[in-house]
Amino acid sequence: MRALVLDRPGSFRVADVPDPAPRPAEIVVKVDCCGVCGTDMHILAGEFPPTPYPIIPGHEFAGQVVARGTGVAQDLPDGTRVAVDPSLYCGWCRQCRAGRGNLCEHWGAIGDTVSGAFAEYVAVPAVNAYRLPDHIGGQYGAMAEPLSCAVHGIRRLGPVASDAVVVVGAGTMGLLLLQLLLHAGAGPVAVVDRVPGRLDVARRLGAAQAVTDASALDGARFDAAVDATGAPEAIETAIGLLGRGGRMLVFGVSPADATIRVSPFRVYNDELTIVGSMAVLRSFGAAVDMLASGAVDPRPLLGEPLPLEGFGAAIDHVRAGEGIKWHIRPS
Ligand SMILES: [Zn+2]
Ligand SMILES: [Zn+2]
Questions:
Q1: For the segment 56-91, what is each residue's pLDDT rounded down to a tens digit?
Q2: How far does the centroid of ligand 2 lie from the alpha carbon of residue 52, in Å?
Q3: Which residues contact 119 (CB under 8 A, 6 or more apart)?
């Protein structure tokens, strides 16, 4: 099969590699679409410590079942259309046994620590596959993974009904979080992003205000703030926008050695809460359901999928802030 192979940080090529064979309890999925994500950029740059090289990246994907290993208990005949939760949890460490598999001490993920879906085929644990309804195409299905991260984030933030919320960052994650916040009854929701085109999408999706700089929010104070950038300055700004009793969700991925300045007096005196959200936790099925019901509409985020050879172009588009979500269609 053809696949995108990262031989080492900074070096990728489309290559012919052996087709994957399903091990016990695995299925093989013929990949329809796989999203390009910030994590892929970190893996490409050699900035994602769990990743071994060479690797076939790609963890946001959907496709069709084409083979089963022994011991697959689910009813997944050939042709079943599925989205796949890339999470690989050990199941026996302290965190897994406490129900926090996303914090697993032996955490792994398809496309991050083992071969992923920038390839014609990928072998995955059958239990990670979620059936897609007929009206959800492969590109929509590939949005289940980022949406499942957003669902986990909103659960971490807690109830938001009638809360004024500011979302910093209107990329894929910011715009999915915006939709989930509105669906959960938050409002008004303001969005901050430097890219004006993204603010237009945010307005179309229901943002009450969409501005290029937080200073344009006229000193408004918010009950909750969500950072979907990972930029330390943006997180400091977002905390500064919180009113008393405010809650901050740190969703974006900062550099591991970054720090922010927070006033401990404000945390004490204003009873601020700062929570983090890491990847997917029992939220993948909810994401598939919300795509299926139309509660979340990924369409404004999507462009035309590119072939495997378009990976470099997709990376360039992401770096240049062009478009929102880029997908690769391997065959
Ligand atoms: Zn991702
Ligand atoms: Zn574990």
A1: 999 999 999 999 999 999 999 999 999 999 999 999
A2: 19
A3: 1, 2, 3, 4, 17, 31, 56, 58, 308, 330
